[in-house]
Amino acid sequence: MEELIKTLLKQLIKAFIQTEQGQALKEQASAYAMSLGHEGAEFIKAENEYYKNLTGEGYSEIIRSGIVAASDALVSGILPGVGGVIALATSAGAIWYMYVKINNVFGIKFSENMGKTIAGGVAANLASTLAVYIGAALVGSLVPGLGVILLPVIIFASTIVAAVVYLQLCIQLFSKYNNSQIESLDDDTLHSEIKASIAKVDTKSLFKDAFKEGKKLKNEIKSSAKNEDEISEFQSFTSNDTQSVRFCSNCGAQIEAVEAKFCPNCGARINP
Question: Which residues have CB under 8 Å from 262's CB, separation 6+?
Fold first, then answer.
């Protein structure tokens, strides 16, 4: 899992610094190399070292976001059944929170509307896939209340999957479009890109690996749950109107009517 995420972060940096917006990051790396007095091959090596440090920072932010999302469930006393777990684990607000953290590391600037749209689209398109994995993680247990025990771990794993999808999506977007084009993508194109990014991710293996990692981090999740400032910041994102951005989990179409119960595009029932 760690190797996959760091590899994607490196690819993201490579694609991003080729864009107009990414030139600021390129200049930061060059300034770092110049400050060390390097030239030629050593200059390039120093730039790469700068990017490597950012990769580590980006990875840490992803893991931390997963931990905070999981610990919020403990703080909030949310102890739902499987359906509730799925709704929480695929929260657009929680995903957007993590995406903002990733963007801040690298200086990626999407408009708030674009950020919410991406987060909502990823959440909707992952919902059915994650439902299968979450169900598998809970089925077969004879221990009463195990679903409650595993809830934070499930949320952590789901958040990690959403992070990898986002990295893959950004790599695609920065490799194909300039900044203004990304912001002006129509819904159909953007959701096609989201679906394509999900298709490139082995979500089953990734969820399994992240689930194992989440079990190892259970104590840190509990510790983070005691950090009121961190949880408060997270809740300010998840309570945002990101939740009002809805997409059909079957076809990915945006649902504009608040009262809609069925997708106007494919007819599938819309989850509340």
Answer: 268, 269, 270
